[in-house]
Each structure stands twice: as C-alpha cells, then as structure tokens.
C-alpha cells in the first residue's frame, strides 16, 4: 500500500531527529565499539531483562573468558553457566551455548547473515535475530522490543496500546534502509532515556512531532486548577478562540502557518486535529477554508 505524503514527510522528519540525537548523544557502550556479530549476539542476550549498568562488567568478563563463538562452543555448558552466575536468568547462558554449538557445527562457526537463518538458531528469537542482522550486518530490518514499540506507538499514534501487528508494520515502514543498525540503537536510547513507562516528554528530542506528547500536554493543561480565565486552556474551545484571534490580524493563512501560530510545537500530526476545528468553525459561520487557505468568514 502506498504511503501518504503526510506520513512520508513525518517519517523523514522523525528519522532525521532520531539519528541526529543518537549521533550527538549516544551512550558509550562496549558493544557499540564493534560490528562482530558474536559480540553483538552476546550483548543482546545479556540485555534481555537486565539493566545496562549490570550488563557492562559481565559482558566484558564473559568475552575475556570466551572471546569467540568457537571458544564458547568448545567448553562445557556448566562452564558457561558458571561464568554467567550473578547476571540472572541463567537459562540465557544455556541457550547462548546451544546457539554457539549449533553455529559451530552447522555454519562452520560463522553466524549467518540472513534474518531467516538467524531466527532458526537455538535460543534466538525474532527481536534478537533482527537486532543482530541490523547492527552487525546492516540489514534493513526493524528490531522491535517492548521499548521500541512504545516509542513508535506514542510518536505516531499517541497511545501505548497499539496492536502488535500495527507496531511491527510501523517499525518496518520507518526504518532507514541505509542506517538500520544506528536506527535500532537510537530507538533503544530514546526509549531508555525519555520514552519510559513514565515518560520524560518535556526533554525528549522528538517531542515536537510526537502525538503522545501533544495529548499528554493537553491532559495536564486540562487538569490544571487556577483562575477562571485559565480554565479552558488547552481545550478545543481554547484553540477555537485562538484561531479566530489569529485570523483577525493575519487575514489569510495556510493551514500549517495557522497551526504554528495557534499551537506551540505544532507538527504534521496536528493537521487532522486543526482541520476538524476549522470544519466546526466553518459550520458556525466563523471561518472559510478554501483549499489550503483559511480566513475569517
């Protein structure tokens, strides 16, 4: 299905903002200093359900003990579990060892590049396979975990409960084909720093284009208690009044130009909302909308 012009423009802006943020402020993590697929695989499995700060020293110690996939495949499972102790979820160590043994036996000790083959490895799920394919091999695939799904759901749909199928479709639509590895890690950083379960929207580098930020801000504003004159701040009633006031001095504006004057941080995602307000004002005989231009009636 062809993408709409509005979505394509929004995707372009989102990609640029996320990659700019990552290239300027990315976390310095040891697994980001390598493209070795084995080391990327170890990091991804260790990071499952474990915080980054806990993983870093164990990752470095584990690789000092088992520097290559072949070295891991040649030892006993008990040795791997022993090296893993303290990190938790020890079944991950067993699955990693089984994966290493399988690759050593079936792929001559070299992790396959193709996503489908990675997904068939013991202990490697869809997310891990996609992360290794994107980060180690630069494959244009989307790595979607809970945190990445939350970022995309909030930015594009303004909610947390977008259906899994829609999240995955969205993730594949927005991944930049030539920077999939950077993209995967950038979304991880965005989710870890800002787009948490309790988000830090005010500091987020993509807040101006995030549907959730606008909805969240309005909810806060509607819940504020103060003077009667501030009672409707952030409501549709408030913005209808602002539209009329702006058009009383700027007599002829495009829809987007009007939006920027009416609402702070106006983004492409706000256009449908603004058009709905304008339709209501037009029904009330207050404004006229002709193609993309707006004026008072």
Overview of the structural elements:
By secondary structure, the protein is mostly helical. Among the domains are: 34-139, Endonuclease III, domain 1 (Orthogonal Bundle); 228-296, Winged helix-like DNA-binding domain superfamily/Winged helix DNA-binding domain (Arc Repressor Mutant, subunit A, Orthogonal Bundle). The protein has 15 helices and 3 strands. It has helices spanning 5-25, 37-46, 52-65, 69-73, 77-84, 91-106, 115-119, 126-137, 146-157, 164-174, 180-193, 211-223, 236-249, 255-262, 271-283, and strands at 253-254, 287-290, 293-296. Strands 1-3-2 form a 3-stranded antiparallel β-sheet. Helix 5 (77-84) packs across helix 6 (91-106), helix 9 packs across helix 11 (180-193) and helix 13 packs across helix 14 (255-262). The two termini are 38 Å apart.
Key descriptive features of the protein:
297 residues; Arc Repressor Mutant, subunit A; Endonuclease III, domain 1; mainly alpha
Mean pLDDT over the full residue set: 89
Element-by-element helix/strand order:
HHHHHHHHHHHHHEHHEE
For this structure, the CATH topology of the domain at 34-139 is Endonuclease III, domain 1
CATH architecture grouping of the domain at 34-139? Orthogonal Bundle
Query: What proportion of the residues form beta strands (DSSP E)?
Result: under 5%
Structural class by sheet pairing and helices: mainly alpha
Write a short abstract of this structure:
This protein is mainly alpha-helical and 297 residues long. Among the domains are: 106 residues, Hypothetical protein, domain 2 (Endonuclease III, domain 1); 69 residues, Winged helix-like DNA-binding domain superfamily/Winged helix DNA-binding domain (Arc Repressor Mutant, subunit A), CATH 1.10.10. Helices cover 59% and strands 3% of the residues.
């Amino acid at each position: 299905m062809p993408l709409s012009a509005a979505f394509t423009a929004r995707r372009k802006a989102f990609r640029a903002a996320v990659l700019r943020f990552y290239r300027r402020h990315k976390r310095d993590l040891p697994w980001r200093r390598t493209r070795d697929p084995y080391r990327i695989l170890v990091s991804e499995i260790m990071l499952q359900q474990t915080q980054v700060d806990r993983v870093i020293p164990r990752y470095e110690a584990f690789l000092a003990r088992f520097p290559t996939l072949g070295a891991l495949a040649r030892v006993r499972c008990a040795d791997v579990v022993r090296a893993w102790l303290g990190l938790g979820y020890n079944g991950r160590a067993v699955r990693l060892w089984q994966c290493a043994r399988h690759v050593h036996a079936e792929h001559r000790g070299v992790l396959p590049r193709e996503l489908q083959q990675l997904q068939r490895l013991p202990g490697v799920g869809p997310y891990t396979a996609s992360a290794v394919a994107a980060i180690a091999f630069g494959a244009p695939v989307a790595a979607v975990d809970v945190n990445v799904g939350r970022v995309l759901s909030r930015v594009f749909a303004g909610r947390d409960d977008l259906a899994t199928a829609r999240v995955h479709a969205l993730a594949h639509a927005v991944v930049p084909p030539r920077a999939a590895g950077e993209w995967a890690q950038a979304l991880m950083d965005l989710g870890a720093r800002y787009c948490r379960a309790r988000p830090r929207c005010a500091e987020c580098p993509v807040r101006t284009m995030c549907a959730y930020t606008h909805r969240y801000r309005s909810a806060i504003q509607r819940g504020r208690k103060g003077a009667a004159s501030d009672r409707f701040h952030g409501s549709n009633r408030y913005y209808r009044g602002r539209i009329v006031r702006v058009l009383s001095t700027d007599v002829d504006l495009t829809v987007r130009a009007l939006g920027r004057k009416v609402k702070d941080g106006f983004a492409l995602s706000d256009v449908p909302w603004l058009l709905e307000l304008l339709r209501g004002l037009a029904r009330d005989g207050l404004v006229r909308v002709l193609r993309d231009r707006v004026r008072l009636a």
